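Quick one: structure for this chain?
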Amino acid sequence: MENTIEGRNPVLEALRAERPIRKIMLSKSVERHGVIAEILHLAGTRGIPVEYVEKAAIDRLAQSVSHQGVIALAAAKAFVSLDELLEIPGSKGETPLFIILDGMEDPHNLGAILRTADASGVHGLIIREKREVGLTAAVEKASAGALEYVPVAKVTNLTRTIEYLKGKNIWIIGVDQAGDTNYSRIDYKPATAIVIGGEGQGLSALVKKACDFLAFIPMRGRVSSLNASVAAGVALFEVVRQREAAKDS
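Got it. Here's what it folds into:
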């Protein structure tokens, strides 16, 4: 199966991560300096053909309107198994930190979460097989290339997966405005998985019940909730803050 990778930074990061790429297509009108020059250099180093085409040809292939005149035809981003994901923290000598997504259907939210996950040192994402957006070109574009560095596992049953993680001594923290614990008062220093619900409906009832804690983010304005990717960022950087403080103490 083949995917398109669209935009300058996503294509550049795919090359840096040595993602299998069959061909890169550039609009004839694109100026060949800066990021484009680096793309051309890496493509040449790896022997990846570059085809210069009219912008209309890229428009026809692209799934997004913001391809910036650059598109790569690549092997679909592979999922990892749950057990492979769980081995990553130990291989790095780090305390586990994962994100679990419950019904995330917006590719822009998923891409933004991947970008924040990479920035905050998350070891991987866990998503459901059904009712969840796939690893599409729109997701890759929104992630600004972070999809290349954040492994993603797909599971059939989220509540069973949560129970499995709890058996591995991983604390499960659901972020939900109906929660009973302020997110900043939870201890994130042990192995942790943050659960983020989908747009609109939030966490499902069964997932809420399976969590060790349901955390809310205090809201001071008139809007009652945050965008899913913003809520993920707030929670994840509280994890970073606590763990960095523990190192310094």
